[in-house]
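As a warm-up, study this chain.
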Amino acid sequence: MLAESLNSAKTRNTPGLADEEKAWRALDEVLRRLVGHLCVAARGQSTQLDAQLGRVASALRRRAPAVEVEGLFGDLHRAIVALDEVPPGTTRAVPASPFATAAGYLVRLLDRLAFDHRLGPKVDEIKSSLASAATDLAVAEAIERVAELVNEQLQSFQRDRGEVERTLAQVNHQLDEVAAYLLGEDADRDAALRSGQEMAGQVGAELQELGASVQRATELESLRRDVVSRTSAIHRHMLDFRERESSRLAAYQERAERMRARIGELERETKTLQESLHREKRLSATDALTGIPNRLAWDERIAHEYARWKRFGRPMCLVAWDIDRFKAINDGYGHAAGDKVLYVVAQHLQRGVREIDFVARYGGEEFAMLLLGTLPEDALKVCNGLRERIARLNFHYRQKPIPVTLSCGIAAFREDDTPDTVFERADLAMYRAKHEGRNACVLA
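Now compare it with the structure written out below.
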């Protein structure tokens, strides 16, 4: 009786519980997004706090259980408390102005967007203006210029699309001419067949009449006249046939020559179109600043290599690189120096691995790398070698030395992995490397 009552009560309350659970889930999603945004906004206060915020943000992205997220709060709390502890003999750094923070976000946005290489000077000009932005008006003007730049990029895409559409329309017209030519060939074959059949019928009829004349003839002179008349008729039929065939052959040769010229034009235009498409595809997959593959190319390549890994199971490692204290380089030496550092680092990372491996600029000062057929221990040796070589490069900009080091996290693909889970492990390992002092490689 008690069980029936409980079941009845559960049945009555089920809709309400479902609605309540749905509301709590929606609230959980909003809170996760809010905490993620706060993690981004709070960065830049200290290295320790940045590392803990990175761990919290990574856990939220992969929707970690509440117990795991709650376990991170202790270290996060200690990092926040440490902000108020000023060691003797030191002064607290003045936090960056909101204008500098907004300018930094705009610069990172410009770095992430894959602009056409022809817009590079305008991008550099906006970055230079952001380096000295000290008012809300200056930041607003920069935002407006970024919007204009995006609009110009879209217009460029539309122009390229219109050019491709015009070229394809012209190719389609020429293909119609080819089809008409082929139809004309069929008509010519039919006409030639009819002409041959007509001549054969006429010659056959003349020969048949000639045979009948021979049988009817009683005088030699009469037979001679019939034979001459019939052979003359056969000769005329042959001449008519040859004249028709000569005219048809001349028309065929003229049409064939015209079609060869058209096909030549079509081949040249097709080749030009293919080269243009290949060039645009290459540019769209290349980072304009560093000259190495960009985020779009990375997404395509990792999807391809992940499918191969699922099929063949060969070892593969993902490496997440980050330039240490890059914001300080931009703030201390200017964005032009920062761009130079990004270019040199990208080129050394690309030249430091094999051709079968892959390096891309993931965004901002972050780079991603795939080491194919490589075990984790070997990947660690490769990355440490790259890190040490870059640390010894002795960067200079306008005769000023710029200390540049990198930190990276390495993660091997394991069973049941996806590209996102591997990247998250590598990203967390990279944050550990920064937390432990930077200029280090950590194996996840």
